[in-house]
Amino acid sequence: MSTLKLDLENYKELLQEYIKTKDEQALYQAEQFSKHSMQQNISPEEIINVHIQSLQEIYPDMPEYIQSSMNFLLETMISYGLAYQEFQTLREKQLELKSEISVAANMQKTLLSTVKPDLSDIDVGALSVPAKQMNGDYHHFVEDGKGNLGIAVADVIGKGVPAALCMSMIKYSMDSFSGIRTDPSVILGNLNRVVERNVDASMFITMFYGLYNSNDHTFTYSSAGHEPGFYYYKDRDEFEEIDVPGLVLGVSPEVSYKQYEKRVEKGDMIILLTDGVTECRQGDRFIDQEEILHVIKQYSHLPAQGIVDQVYKHFERLQDFQLRDDFTLIILRRNV
Amino acid sequence: MNLSIDVTNNEGVSNVVLTGEVDAFTAPKLKDTLLPLTKEQGHVVEVDFQDVNYMDSTGLGVFISALKSTKEHGATMRLVHMQDRVYRLFKITGLTEIMNIESTVQGGM
Questions:
Q1: CATH of A8-76, one of 2.10.77.10, 1.10.1240.30, 3.90.870.40, 1.10.150.120
Q2: Per-chain mean pLDDT for chain A
Q3: How many domains does chain B have?
Q4: Which of B51, B52, B66, B107 is deepest in the core (most CB within 10 A)?
Q5: Contact between A245 and B90 (Cβ < 8 Å)
Q6: Is the pLDDT of residue B108 over 60?
Q7: What is the ipTM of this complex?
Q8: CB A289 within 8 A of CB A241
Q9: Which of A251, A272, A323 to probe by mutation at the B interface, max B CB count within 10 Å?
Q10: How does residue A180 score in pLDDT terms, banded at 50, 70 and 90?
Q11: pLDDT above 50: residue A160
Q12: Using a CB-CB distance cutoff of 8 angstroms, which residues of chain A are in contact with residue B23?
């Protein structure tokens, strides 16, 4: 196949050859010609124009009615040309949007970024992976400099851009509360009022908020309808669900959240997650809690970050590397 | 997976029978069917979950907005024949405390 040049001469030769030989090869080249024209943004009526000119050159004595009918066809094709132009513009716009979303995703990453604390008493592992470009899961660590570590894990209903925007609101509300009072129940109560006032009726947020006091190794926590985490007792080598009642944020304006406290012994683990972990599916089969705990146990000899990474890899494999939902997992383990 | 929604109306009561999965793809359709039913004073909306084996948080969102709407318009909604897995979702999110839910599962309440 020769490389095609988009010009009158070339088209004319192809046409002439086809009329003479009815050869399939010429038809194939015509197809190439049209593909090439599309790449060059050539409109359909321009091609017809080229066709008319070629005909005139090949058949100088072309009957007038053919000439007229060709002009007629040319006019008819103009709307198609416009539609094609519109398609081109839309395609450019789509690329533009795509790049804007990726800028937004990067901004979100910066806005919501949280530094995993480096503490001597507790080993912390954290991982959050979005299913799409933007993450509807959120986790945040706050240290108060007095030995308290606040941990928030949240999931906004829905995915994609709306969920991500909502998450940014939560992050800023939390920043404005911080330093006033750090009781989990108070933080959730305040956030609930903000969310209830500001989001659509069908939107809601689940959040678990915990406060680890490394002076006396107590863990205080409350939950707003969040997927239950797990507590691991080192001495008994047993897991227990951290099942805390509490209504999701944003449904009812006046909700008070109960607060619970637990004493953490050496080697104990606190496991916090979002439903992207428990809603993992392998084909039609759901992953059950037992399986998650089994995988955590299997890697429990590793540092907390190692466990988190391995659990993610395990479920990523199970789902053929296609996450259905955002995945967030946090593990805290008391070292000393 | 698909969701089929069958509505039968009978003397101020709408019976909504769901079959399939309620997720991000099917939730908008459910919302469009369910919400108008909740906007009539004194109307009762009963949603049958017998054949719903999966629901995700988007589905919960639909029922939360339906609940808000019933309160606003003086209608009532009850969710019946809920399977274990779906009931768990309402339970975790604290919605069993504020919604009228009847589960089929023993000890589920």
A1: 1.10.1240.30
A2: 86
A3: 1
A4: B66
A5: no
A6: no
A7: 0.83
A8: yes
A9: A251
A10: low
A11: yes
A12: none
Put simply, the chain A residues between 51 and 110 with a CB less than 8 A from any chain B CB are: none
Enter the CATH code of domain A114-334: 3.60.40.10
**Contacts made by residues A163-167, CB under 8 angstroms, sequence distance 24+:** A163/A134, A163/A136, A164/A104, A164/A105, A164/A108, A164/A134, A164/A135, A164/A136, A166/A136, A166/A199, A166/A203, A166/A205, A167/A108, A167/A112, A167/A135, A167/A136, A167/A138
Residue holding tokens 């037992």? A290
**A248 near A275, Cβ under 8 Å?**
no
CB of B44 within 8 Å of a chain A CB? The answer is no
Instruction: For residue range A55-108, list pLDDT tens digits in order.
Output: 999 999 999 999 999 999 999 999 998 998 898 899 999 999 988 888 887 887
Using the predicted structure, report yes or no on whether residue A330 has a pLDDT greater than 90.
yes
Tokens at residue A325, please? Answer: 């939902």
Answer yes or no: do A157 and B57 touch at CB < 8 A. yes
Cβ within 8 Å, pair A203-B61: yes
Band (A267; pLDDT cuts 50, 70, 90): very high
